[in-house]
Amino acid sequence: xxxxxxxxxxxxxxxxxxxxxxxxxxxxxxxxxxxxxxxxxxxxxxxxxxxxxxxxxxxxxxxxxxxxxxxxxxxxxxxxxxxxxxxxxxxxxxxxxxxxxxxxxxxxxxxxxxxxxxxxxxxxxxxxxxxxxxxxxxxxxxxxxxxxxxxxxxxxxxxxxxxxxxxxxxxxxxxxxxxxxxxxxxxxxxxxxxxxxxxxxxxxxxxxxxxxxxxxxxxxxxxxxxxxxxxxxxxxxxxxxxxxxxxxxxxxxxxxxxxxxxxxxxxxxxxxxxxxxxxxxxxxxxxxxxxxxxxxxxxxxxxxxxxxxxxxxxxxxxxxxxxxxxxxxxxxxxxxxxxxxxxxxxxxxxxxxxxxxxxxxxxxxxxxxxxxxxxxxxxxxxxxxxxxxxxxxxxxxxxxxxxxxxxxxxxxxxxxxxxxxxxxxxxxxxxxxxxxxxxxxxxxxxxxxxxxxx
Length: 454
Description:
It is a single chain. By secondary structure, the protein is an alpha/beta fold. The protein has two domains: about 1-120, Rossmann fold (3-Layer(aba) Sandwich), CATH 3.40.50.720; about 130-255 and about 350-445, Dihydrodipicolinate Reductase, domain 2. It is built from 16 helices and 16 strands. The protein has helices spanning about 15-20, 25, 40-45, 60-70, 85-90, 105-110, 110-115, 130-145, 180, 255-265, 280-285, 295-305, 310-320, 335-350, 390-405, 420-430, and strands at about 1-5, 30-35, 50-55, 75, 95-100, 120, 150-160, 190-195, 195-200, 210-215, 220-225, 245-250, 355-370, 370-380, 415, 440-445. It has a seven-stranded parallel sheet with strand order 3-2-1-4-5-6-15, sandwiched between helices. The longest helix has 18 residues, at about 390-405.
């Protein structure tokens, strides 16, 4: 039996583990599912004869090294900053490594040694990053193979609530890490390129500059810009492209509503609010409003945000129970962002029967034989339940498929890498279709821009 060590049995590991266990007899696999919580590891393995749950503290070097030494290949589903010690152990014991996380500078620094030892350190092989890379490179390579020149590439992705579970005014629930949602867009201006001109959107304006998208059968969406759309320009071979934009998908109206929190200062994570533990929700929002001897917190909020009481934006705030004087924050030494996250989690947590949804949308503009053309590629994935979510499927399945391809010698290029080579993306995308992760590609009129307006 070939021993696959999976470190981290959190929400993203469910579909990954199910896939590998379904292939375990045929592929002669034994899974060691390691987590700090033995109960969590047991819950994910379901007493399967080809799986062993393991309690593992990755900060215990002896435990960690022993587990890695006994593996044929290692999958790390831990947060990105925890991969590096695992990667160093994989080098020491000559083990391939697969993660869904962005390649850090520390990970990239191991590239030469990985190549020297003929080891594959596959990263960014989840959803975003991951499926976005693979589905984009497939079409870009096909366009280039025909002799086309890329002019425009726009890519959007979002984790949302499925239509049948969409029952609040925000048309949104937390399907993944809430903290990432609250802090989205912070840390610098969003940067992209349109018609050869660099464009920047400061955080204060980010959620009022959106692009609209239509997905057949699912209606209209909006997208706001990611912080750095140009990160993959050279990696994708798009250094000369005129337009390059990456964004996050939400339902129409979400961004305008979210901007209220930004303008009030409630998404700030840089300072602690005094007395936060005993603060009520009403006191929290009032702490961002000017003092007035007679106006209520509600009136002050509407005045500062310039919204009327019959505005849907006001209804969205009321739905969150923001003005409740009896609900307590119960978080000591909390930042505004942490308190906002707590308030939103009260309203946006998925119910037991709720399903999530992933939407991905690419636009490819190119020139071929003097004619400008465009391909739009769209993918929608709906989760099964709270365990096998669309997010877990789209993050975990590419990791699992890549792991098997590496074990079976189908992926052979060594080094620290992301899945942009044909030997990687072609078989993974093909197999993902069997699990309902399908991109529908359409030829559409070239979107283009008017350069005079830029």
